Amino acid sequence: MDIIADILLAAGALGAGFYCLVLGRRLNRFNDLEKGVGGAVAVLSAQVDDLTKTLASAQETANASAETLTQLTSRAEDTARRLELQMASLHDLPPSQEPEPQASPPPTSAPPKPVEPMFVRRHAEGPI
């Protein structure tokens, strides 16, 4: 009975060793930097770094654009205030003393016929 127990114990140890060997190889393939998940993680990490740099650059550009837009808006508001003030000051002026335009004669029913033709076609006979 002891011999059978020793044989079963040795078989179990060999089975556990074989299982660990297979599991170790799978883990190495899983963490392989070129084909496995380790490679995918490395690529994704590089892409995250690139996206972080791009995002920082985009934020800087957006902040500069927002600052420029704020300055332009304030300039436009100042100009609008000045224009409103000028328009208000024009309402305070007395009416002009210009003579009223006289009524023009009523237009004739047909325009006068031209003496010469309106368009003339000339043939080039030589250098001009």
The general outline is elongated
Helix/sheet category: mainly alpha
Quaternary organisation of the protein chains: single chain
The helix-strand sequence is HH
Portion of residues within helices: 55-70%
Poorly predicted parts: none
Number of helices: 2
Number of strands: 0
Largest sheet data: none
Write the layout of secondary structure elements.
Blueprint: H1 2-30, H2 37-91
Summarize the structure in words.
This protein has a domain at 10-90. The longest helix has 55 residues, at 37-91. The protein is built from 2 helices and no strands. With 128 residues, the chain is mostly helical. The model has no long low-confidence stretch (mean pLDDT 83).
Sum this structure up briefly:
This protein is an all-alpha fold.
Write out key terms for the chains shown.
about 130 residues; mainly alpha
